[in-house]
Amino acid sequence: MKSNIESGNWKVGEKIPSENELTGELGVSRSSIRQAVSHFAGIGVLESVHGKGTFLIDDEVEEQSNANKITAEDCRNAEKVLEFRRIVESEACYLATLNKSPELVKKLRKYLKIMVESREDIEKFVTADISFHRAICHASGNPLLEKSLNRIFQENKKSQMLTRKTFGYHDGIHYHEQILQAIERGDAEQARSCMYEHMQNGIDKVRK
């Protein structure tokens, strides 16, 4: 399973093969498949959706088990979560821009493209949205930023879906485009400012 993720055979936002298919393909028991899926779900790489299947939500296969220090209850207050993200992700964006690589830009373009093409698919849109932010956090080079935000993302996906239903897609795409453009230019100050404005926009809407 790990090789399918790392090789790009499985794409972010797409459903992976079923348990039965994986059992036949990999030649292992169903219990082994379940354990593997549970592991990757626990580190924020896969997500199982009842009645729909299991989806790849991140292609960074790294151990993040130590991220689970923030409780689920902490993540349920949308305003507090956005305030936290405004502080942390603004700086993560600044650092990611300083550490900019062609690989990062390629990933961000891919996730943004999925967002633009998924206006009618809330789940796919949010999955790409989270992957965009995760890629920036990873590129910051600071594992503490990455671990804390991964925990937030794991617990906060459902509320993000509700937010998208309420507020629509335009703002999300607009701010992600601005962030990506600043990173591409290597303008760390502007990238930080765009991320701050993105989070503040969410806070303002939640408060209304």
From TrEMBL:
The keyword Heme does not apply. InterPro entries: GntR_C (IPR011711), TF_FadR/GntR_C (IPR008920), Tscrpt_reg_HTH_GntR (IPR000524), WH-like_DNA-bd_sf (IPR036388), WH_DNA-bd_sf (IPR036390). Residues 1-59 form the HTH gntR-type domain. Pfam families: FCD (PF07729), GntR (PF00392). One of its GO terms (molecular function) is DNA-binding transcription factor activity. Keywords: DNA-binding, Transcription, Transcription regulation. It comes from the Bacteria. PANTHER family: TRANSCRIPTIONAL REGULATOR, GNTR FAMILY (PTHR43537), UXU OPERON TRANSCRIPTIONAL REGULATOR (PTHR43537:SF5). This is FadR family transcriptional regulator.
